[in-house]
Amino acid sequence: MESYFELKKNNTNIRTEVLAGLTSFLATAYIVVVNPSILSQAGMPFSGALTATVLVSFFSSVMMGIYARNPIIVAPGMGLNAFFTFSAVMGMGITWQVALGAVFWSGIIFLLLSVFKVRTLIVKAIPRPLRYAIAAGIGLFITLIGFANAGFIVSNPATTVGLGPLSPSVLTFLGGLFLMAVLITRNVTGAILIGIVLTTLAAYPLGRWWAMEADPVISWQGLFSTPDFSLVLQLDLINSLQFAVFPVIFAFVFTDLFDSLSTFVGLAEAANLTDEHGEPRNVARSLTADAMSTTIAGLLGSSPGTAYVESAVGIEAGGRSGLTAVVGGLLFLPFLFLAPLLSMIPAIATAPALVLVGAFMVRPVVKINWLKMDEAIPAFLAMVLIPFTYSISQGIIWGFLSWAVLKVATGNARTISPTLWVIVAFSVLALVMQSH
Fold it and tell me: Which residue ranges does UniProt annotate as crossing the membrane (predicted)?
């Protein structure tokens, strides 16, 4: 195991990797409940979608760990599941079986792009200032998600966002945030995991002592559940190839492509998971594993799988090899039977980890030359639009577009590679399709 995952080379050990895998799992485990709750609105059985979510997360993460040897959790993606339900099924009126077929075919396209190394070319075409900005933008995005999950930041009609009320649950979140920050500052091993566990224990009495809160912090929903395999192989492969469904396939391809690419690039830059050429480590294999995840998702009955930015939590906890992803993936499997237990880990327990990860991921911004404005402005736009639009792909699209515009305007069009011009063209196409 040590030689296969190159633990010594990565300056880690089995204990650290196991703890990191557990930490990553706790930060991403919410998807086991959230994904089926969204997919069920498309008419899919909740229990079947839950089983599919667990299976996709298990197979995909283990594949990422063993094949690509990267410490990145792969599971059905947030945003992609919303597009599946609200845009494809409810908006366009196609059946969920046809939508699953679209997921499968988008996975096949991913796979072809990966096999022929097109996706690797795309990674190498991303200018370094944009890479650094994407890493920081993802960090800010994760921080925003953490604050929102805790109820510390809420929507406000007057100011768009605002500070939420200091309820008992928010105060518990703040206690967990400061505790975790102190543990990290003092270099305590397993600081993030310890913080999640202690915050969960602190949150448990809230459901009893402050039972009048509108949203219970922890709700007990039993212990065991039975797997439901009713969605396996229910995709409609033929009807999903109709011309009317092509926009759905393209949207899956484009969104998942740039979400996964930017996640790999961002995590690599923030955690120094790069090869001797400064490129994301094992990027070709990582992208192939990501492509296989989407293909498997269509077969098993879920929205597309993608690399999870929350993997940064486990990476910050010391995870440096594929063993982290393998451990995280294996931890999903028991929840085929124990899914109700996930309700015992409230959002306010994992939210502090998400918030603090942002502090680690903004480090690369110091590498950006902020005095070279034709690079600084696109980097800035990519960085801020990721959290402001609540979309990684939107941030990177506008980063690419502004990069091309400013390079052309300053007479530096020759510095733009052919691959980057193709990316810019697809970015424009994606924006046009989104507006219709």
Answer: 18-38, 44-66, 73-92, 98-118, 130-154, 166-184, 191-211, 231-254, 323-342, 348-366, 378-401, 413-433
